[in-house]
Amino acid sequence: MRVGDVILAIDGHPIDGVDALHRLLGVDRVGVATALRLLRDGGAREVSVTPRERTG
Questions:
Q1: Helix ranges (DSSP H) in 1-56
Q2: What phi and psi, each to the nearest 5 degrees, are found at residue 39?
Q3: Hey, CA dihedral for 42, 37, 25, 13, is it positive or negative?
Q4: Which of 49, 45, 53 shows the shortest CA–CA distance to 5?
Q5: N or C: which end of the chain has fewer CB within 10 A?
Q6: Is pTM, for the whole model, over 0.85?
Q7: % helix / strand / coil in the chain, to the nearest 5?
Q8: Count of CA atoms in the C-beta half-sphere (13 A) of 24
Q9: Are 21 and 51 in contact (CB under 8 A)?
Q10: pLDDT, tens digit, 9 for 90 and up, residues 13-54
Q11: What's the N-to-C CA distance of the chain in angstroms?
């Protein structure tokens, strides 16, 4: 991900706010490949990320 990216969906589930983002990226996602649909530079794109635990 890059600064300025806007998350539109996680694994096909639309993101309509911070609550949805937190719900869909909960602890059960740590270490699991997750599909994101992003808005970047005016266009939508699909990327895969693997969330990890926050350190430091």
A1: 18-24
A2: -105, 115
A3: positive
A4: 45
A5: C
A6: no
A7: 20, 40, 45
A8: 19
A9: no
A10: 999 999 988 888 877 778 889 999 999 999 999 999 888 887
A11: 20
